[in-house]
Amino acid sequence: MRINKYIAEAGVASRRNADQMIKDGRVSVNGKKTTECGMDINVDNDTVYVDGVRITPIRRYTYIMFNKPKGCITTAQDEFGRKTIYDYLDQYAGKGLFPVGRLDYDSEGLLLLTNDGALAQVLTHPSYEIPKTYLVKIEGEISEDDMKKIRNGIKAKDGVRYAPAKLYAKEIKPEYSKLEITITEGKNREVRKIFEAVGKNVVFLCRKKIGDLALGGLTRGTARYLTAKEIAYLKSLGN
């Protein structure tokens, strides 16, 4: 990073004023004064002082909500050439954003992206038990007995046991069933495997909420910045 940018990101001065500070001999790097405005520094290893006071850049975190459509993956690149979420997020490029958890290729709905690793850890680690709510459509009619099994916690065909889930029937017909399920673990393909454990195939899966943060009316395939209130709420989940 250029030293003038480093000083600006520390909130000490604008880049132009930082250049003047450097020319005036007020800046030192690793204990040595510098007058080179275009000097590159290693942000991890070099120490920068202005007027004898060490400075560090203020980390500017970004938080966005994305309504992921089905038919794209959550990684940056795909060996099979499939579309990724980043194909929809050009306006947020260069911010180092990564997805908080995943939604698989055939799933859609609420996906958070950030460059705040600490918050991402809170939202994804099972120990925090952050509830995530999904709308699900399965083939065929689900029985009350199968719903009870899911509510009580169920063991999948691969031997993995899933914690009890909240499950509500929204529409049940012989051809299909629509349900709302809330889980707190977030294991890989958890919702699909839960229903597979009772012999049901998921044909539609949409995440609607993370905690109380809801997707709302955000158009599929678009994103927006989180509000200060929403960010504060998500951070409170780790307390």
Detailed description of the structure:
This protein has 2 domains: 3-55, RNA-binding S4 domain (Structural Genomics Hypothetical 15.5 Kd Protein In mrcA-pckA Intergenic Region, Chain A, Roll), CATH 3.10.290.10; 63-229, 2-Layer Sandwich (Pseudouridine synthase), CATH 3.30.2350. Strands 5, 6, 7, 8, 11, 12, 13, 14 and 15 form a 9-stranded mixed β-sheet that branches. Strands 2-1-3-4 form a 4-stranded antiparallel β-sheet. By secondary structure, the protein is of the alpha+beta class. The protein contains 6 helices and 15 strands.
- The percent of residues in helical segments reads 10-25%
Q: Rounded to an integer, what's the Rg over CA atoms?
A: 24 Å
CATH architecture of the largest domain: 2-Layer Sandwich
Q: Which structural category do the helix and sheet elements fall into?
A: alpha+beta
Give the full name of the CATH homologous superfamily of the largest domain. Pseudouridine synthase
Strand and helix order: HHEEEEEEEHEHEEEEHEEEH
Q: What is the CATH topology of the largest domain?
A: Pseudouridine synthase
- Stretches where pLDDT is under 50 for at least 5 consecutive residues are none
CATH top-level class of the largest domain: Alpha Beta
| Structural domain count | 2
- Write down the overall geometry: elongated
